[in-house]
Amino acid sequence: MIDMQSTAAMPRARASSETVLRTRDLVKRYGERPAVNGLNLDVRRGEIFGFLGPNGAGKTTTIRMALGLITPTSGSVEILGQDVVVHRDKVLPRVGALIEQPALHLYMSGRDNLRAVGAILGGVSNQRIEEVLSLVGLAARQKDRVRTYSLGMKQRLGVAIALLNDPDLLVLDEPANGLDPAGIVEMRDLLRQLAAQGKTVFISSHVLAEVQQICTRVAIINLGRLVTESTVEGLTRGHGEFIVRVENPTAALAQIQRQPWGAQAKLDGDGVIHTAAPNGQGRYLTRFLVEAGFYPDQITYQEESLEDVFLRLTNGSNGEVR
After folding, report:
1. Tens digit of pLDDT for each residue in 260-304?
2. What 3-state DSSP class applies to 213?
3. Which one is the CATH code of 19-231: 3.10.150.10, 3.40.50.300, 2.115.10.20, 3.40.50.10280?
4. How far from 173 is each of 47, 59, 80, 158, 304, CA to CA, in Å?
5. Going by C-beta distance under 8 Å and a sequence separation of 6 or more, which residues neighbour residue 279?
6. CATH of 241-306, one of 1.10.3470, 1.25.40, 3.30.160, 3.30.70
7. H or E stretch including 202?
8. Which of 104, 159, 244, 263 has the fewest C-beta atoms under 10 angstroms from its C-beta?
9. Alpha-carbon gap, residue 95 to 196, rounded angstroms
10. 222-258 tens-digit pLDDT
């Protein structure tokens, strides 16, 4: 297991004001088709930043431009204030990346995988290899062949490889890909620890429930354009609904739907009313129901999930959230 505090006890790291990754009016066209269209992002040191969008939204293209794998049509990507295209050799060594499942030598031990990559990078000491093995919780299994590792262990070894050069920015594409619940918790704890150490973690993921738990801020893009960039709390707060149980829900629903704030109220298959409230306050909803002759047995506020927000802002895109 990863050597760190439990998830429940570990607070989220506070990001600093220093911008580690910035895109400005970023555009990438393939022929006449814009894959990324005028994208502006600011990702700060010490935060875990979620990058979300439906399949084909432009996330992978953005990541490839950030890693210097493709050149923007126009606009720029800056890492630590340096243009990635102009200063590629200077800035990319300060970036670590894990793109889906890592490419590992299964017949080699975890430690030997790190030594092989370290030899290519150059300047990676045995001490640094020991440090990252301990950091990702693989010190006890470092001599075992990777073919014996679980998928979660392989993902953590991939993160260890990305950390070998002690990067300021860690770019992870689907870090929870294929992990079981225990593996997801381990990955979550690891990323929180890295952010607490001042590293910036940039995550592209389709596991929105996990993004909601771990990310400081998120950006949602659709059709190559930025839809929103906000804290998770800012996106989910104030957009939920109230769950109401009353003796005569059909009649109560009819009264609620006559109100401007309740026009979208609905009744589910269990006879429970889902509705907004006057001024967004449960006490005013309670007063309305009582004055209308309906004494509620239960009124509960249900906050909108990040997945709900995503579907609402992307018009319920049928594309896979990738």
Report:
1. 999 989 999 889 999 988 988 889 999 999 999 999 999 988 777
2. helix
3. 3.40.50.300
4. 16, 9, 20, 11, 25
5. 261
6. 3.30.70
7. strand 200-204
8. 263
9. 17
10. 999 999 998 888 887 766 788 999 999 999 999 999 9
